[in-house]
From TrEMBL:
Listed name of the protein: Metalloregulator ArsR/SmtB family transcription factor
Record flagged with keyword Nucleotide-binding: no
Pfam families in the cross-refs: HTH_20 (PF12840)
Location of the HTH arsR-type domain: 7-102
NCBIfam families: HTH_metalloreg
InterPro entries: ArsR-like_HTH, HTH_ArsR_DNA-bd_dom, Metal_resp_trans_reg, WH-like_DNA-bd_sf, WH_DNA-bd_sf
UniProt KW keywords: DNA-binding, Transcription, Transcription regulation
Top-level taxon in the UniProt lineage: Bacteria
Length: 131
């Protein structure tokens, strides 16, 4: 089923389906590899991801179904490329967001390291609150 075929589905559901298509580390790795080159042969994707050919084929099928990659046969080889330049932009935005979240988390941890420790009585209250 084509995730974009039903025009009566609300846009937020279509977006959620797109993110489901992205929701695997191997698929993200494939997209990152494709974002770095105009086109990549399947053999190179297999080597770079460490996936068996059949497993990689399943991931590429999901990415094609979600209109994220295109393929082209050249002789006996199949090459893949990003279907849209916005996919690379989406990966870059996600990377930037993750850096920002990690930086904020690091700063919060540094700030919390300077807080006073919990006294015995305060520690008992915290434990009682967990129960």
């Amino acid at each position: 089923m084509d995730p974009l075929a039903d025009f009566h589905v609300p846009l937020y559901e279509v977006k959620a389906n797109l993110f489901k298509g992205l929701a695997h580390p191997v698929r993200i790795r494939i997209l990152e590899l494709l974002a770095a080159s105009p086109s990549v042969p399947v053999a190179e994707l297999i080597a770079a991801t460490g996936q068996e050919a059949s497993n990689l084929s399943q991931h590429l099928s999901v990415l094609r179904r979600h209109h994220l990659v295109d393929s082209e046969r050249r002789g006996s080889q199949v090459f893949y490329r990003l279907a849209h330049t916005q996919v690379a932009e989406l990966l870059a935005v996600a990377r930037s967001l993750l850096h920002e979240v990690l930086d904020t988390t690091r700063k919060n941890l540094e700030l919390s390291a300077g807080l006073p420790g919990i006294s015995g009585q305060d520690e008992r209250l915290v434990e009682e609150g967990r129960q």
